[in-house]
Amino acid sequence: xxxxxxxxxxxxxxxxxxxxxxxxxxxxxEPLVVEADPAGGDLGARFGLSPQRGLVTLAAAxxxxxxxxxxxxxxxxxxxxxxxxxxxxxAGAEQARQALGELGGGGWSLLWAAARQGGRPVLVDCGRLDxxxxxxxxxRAADVLLLVVRARDDELAHLxxxxxxxxxxxxPAWYLVVAGQPGRDDRYRMRDLAGVLGARVxxxxxxxxxxxxxxxxxxxxxxxxxxxxxGRAAAELAGYLTGHLDVPDQxxxxxxxxxxxxxxxxxxxxxxxxxxxxxxxxxxxxxxxAR
Length: 291
Ligand SMILES: Nc1ncnc2c1ncn2[C@@H]1O[C@H](COP(=O)(O)OP(=O)(O)O)[C@@H](O)[C@H]1O
Ligand SMILES: [Mg+2]
What we know:
Elements: E1 2-7, H1 14-23, E2 32-35, H2 43-47, H3 55-64, E3 78-79, E4 85-87, H4 93-102, H5 107-116, E5 122-128, H6 136-141, E6 144-150, H7 153-168, E7 174-179, H8 187-197, E8 200-205, H9 209-215, H10 229-244
Parallel strand pairs: 1-5, 1-6, 2-4, 2-5, 6-7, 7-8
Antiparallel strand pairs: 3-4
Helix pairs in contact: 1-10, 3-4, 3-5
The protein binds adenosine-5'-diphosphate (ADP) and magnesium ion.
């Protein structure tokens, strides 16, 4: 499965959510987090990682493609202290944009092959989304986009103006994931949002500074984030996605005819045709068939 995570404005916690989801992904293939943020990566600095591997080396490997086997993905990724595998972006925006552009030479294909044939969940942190983003190929390949927003007037105003653009991306599925804010109960705002947008609204992702600090390399915790509120919400969300998305079966690529609601339909609300998920039931226990 290819999961893209992005934001529209500010810093609502897209990177943190991508890491939390990967960390709490249900057992199966080993998740890979790809930092595809055109504004530049944060993980290298947060975890003190060497710039000698990451998007830049993957882009170079993809370009060399024809002349022999490209270096395997494993040679471009870092392993974070808790065990998560990440592909980092350079910290500088210019370098990050350039590396993302160069992934078109074959690097993206290596990632999608890992997701489709290797059965790895690939979580792509696209940073702030805009129509000209060099991370757009990830949106085109994605099974789902998680758009992280805080239920604040300024962010929601942006969302309203960008709705058509998001629909134009023709994603097979997309959700708004509401990031919780300190000292606020966002559930009422979420329900309002749901009523107005007619799109899926998931969350809220709890405001959990202690768990976020673990995912930002500022704190070590035995057991990582597994018992934190953020960790539990991420586990629910990951379980929800694996249970509800119709992802092409990579084991029999020739016979499989992917059914992708919304892909061939005109871009109209709602972009996802599988129905409305009430915001307040999202973190209810998962149904049996979703397991
Ligand atoms: N759920 C959360 N609870 C508390 N703090 C968070 C949460 N998510 C993110 N943060 C913090 O907010 C800051 C920005 O988060 P980050 O994930 O880098 O945002 P973005 O990728 O959207 O720019 C970081 O300091 C991070 O630790
Ligand atoms: Mg980020």
